[in-house]
Write a structure and sequence with these properties.
This is ABC transporter permease. By secondary structure, the chain is mainly α. Helices cover 69% and strands 4% of the residues.
Length: 458
């Protein structure tokens, strides 16, 4: 195991990269993700506390105790739903007008011009109205069902597209007000208090403006909604790991492979009595030990952050947590394969670090981890689908059952497909690295033979 120990010493000799990529950038991404987890957990606790009373506080009273957020509403649908949401949030937030173009929406989030963007998709009002009525009819059918007969489940409620600035806590809190508006609206429609969607919107807005009285509609946040919010925050924490993990794996593994592939080191290894495949296996074991350590460290911290709000795995199931862990592990191994490929081309530490930082940023910004793909330009979406980062974040959505722009219908099969594509990228990186290393070795041996021949002739 001498080669294995040497591999670990080589990695430890470059501990500056570990300190920079694993600890510094890893801690930054964990801080962003954990802040989202804490906000979702506090929202769940506040909802459970409010449900024990007689009435739920209005959006206006809740917003008066919180800092105002800058909110932009993009209306791509007809009807008064967007206008009603604008009036509902206006008393406790600053409403911002944005041009409905992918570039402008992305710039607004990147520059922190807004804390929250709410997009009402085309046809949303009609789908929301039908789903609210369908949910009420489905509950009535389930109550009247007898003899154990099964009934069809009610239609899932459509969701408005929301994008929160990762630098703003106000945006996370404002999103809860948006969810509260749609929850109240669904309750009004399902109860039949108002005959149609337009009347229901006006009713909810009117009730929110009554400061001395609580709304007559009691809103209790369902466990499914709380679990979805918690799963979204946990998924965000894992998605953001793609940047520090990719940079650390690419830089350290490429340096490790580069040292062992140096001409002098290679000649000494070839002259030793240890078989070549044993040497390669020990090198691989040393690199994988470092990769598994980074994966276990990041995933354990994210898991510890979510567990206080996941009592009895009520919000996120054990199966979902396991699938998320496997997704991150496969992404870590793929990053190691990319580092192996760079090392086979004998890139210098400076070049390897530059490639890791540049390609890591490309992966993060095109994968949907840093921005909601719904507001990304089509060119970035197309580029993202050609890279492993997109399929890594897609696998996280499928694992947690999150219906998003990337995964409209999350499923186990979709998770397996995404994981297979990420693993396939890793296999391609290894094959390219082996081919490149073989090409360089063959040409180096050919050049050395020519030099020996020339010296002999002279």
């Amino acid at each position: 195991m001498q080669t294995f120990k040497t591999a670990l010493r080589i990695i430890w000799a470059h501990k500056l990269y570990m300190l920079l990529y694993v600890l510094t950038f890893g801690a930054l991404m964990l801080a962003l993700g954990i802040s989202s987890i804490i906000a979702a957990g506090n929202d769940a606790n506040a909802s459970s506390t409010g449900s024990s009373g007689t009435t739920a506080p209005s959006a206006q009273n809740a917003a008066s105790k919180l800092p105002k957020a800058n909110i932009a509403i993009i209306n791509r649908d007809s009807g008064n739903l967007a206008q009603g949401l604008h009036e509902y949030l206006g008393s406790g937030a600053t409403m911002v007008t944005l041009q409905d173009t992918p570039q402008r929406l992305q710039d607004a989030i990147a520059r922190n011009d807004v804390d929250l963007i709410v997009i009402i998709p085309k046809g949303f009002s009609e789908r929301f109205d039908k789903a609210a009525i369908s949910s009420h009819n489905g509950q009535s059918n389930n109550l009247s069902a007898s003899n154990g007969s099964s009934q069809s489940s009610p239609s899932a409620m459509p969701l408005a597209d929301t994008t929160v600035s990762y630098l703003s806590s106000e945006g996370v809190l404002a999103k809860t007000d948006v969810n509260g508006f749609f929850s109240e609206l669904r309750s009004v429609l399902a109860s039949g208090v108002q005959p149609d969607l337009s009347s229901a919107v006006r009713y909810v807005v009117r009730q929110s403006k009554v400061s001395s009285l609580s709304p007559t509609v009691k809103v209790v946040k369902e466990a499914a909604d709380t679990g979805k919010s918690m799963a979204n925050s946990f998924g965000l924490t894992i998605k953001l790991s793609i940047y520090p993990v990719f940079m650390a794996m690419t830089t350290c593994i490429s340096l490790l492979i580069g040292v062992f592939n140096a001409p002098e080191t290679r000649r000494r290894l070839n002259a030793s009595s240890v078989r070549s495949y044993e040497l390669s296996a020990q090198q691989l074991l040393g690199g994988m030990s470092f990769g598994l350590l980074c994966w276990a460290l990041y995933y354990s911290i994210a898991l510890l952050a979510i567990m206080p709000f996941n009592h009895g795995f009520s919000a996120i199931s054990v199966l979902a947590i396991t699938k998320v862990g496997i997704s991150q592990l496969v992404c870590t191994l793929t990053s190691m394969a990319f580092g192996f490929m760079i090392g086979q081309f004998r890139a210098s530490p400076t070049v390897a670090s530059a490639i890791a930082v540049s390609f890591g940023l490309i992966l993060m910004f095109t994968s949907g981890a840093a921005f909601d793909p719904a507001v990304m330009p089509q060119a970035m979406v197309t580029l993202g689908k050609l890279l492993p980062g997109w399929w890594f974040t897609t696998s996280i959505n499928d694992a947690l059952g999150l219906a998003t722009f990337q995964t409209p219908h999350p499923s186990m099969f979709g998770w397996l497909q995404s994981m297979g594509l990420v693993a396939l990228f890793g296999c391609v990186f290894v094959c390219v690295g082996l081919a490149g290393g073989r090409y360089r070795s063959a040409h180096a041996e050919f050049g050395m033979a020519n030099r020996v021949t020339e010296l002999t002739e002279h």
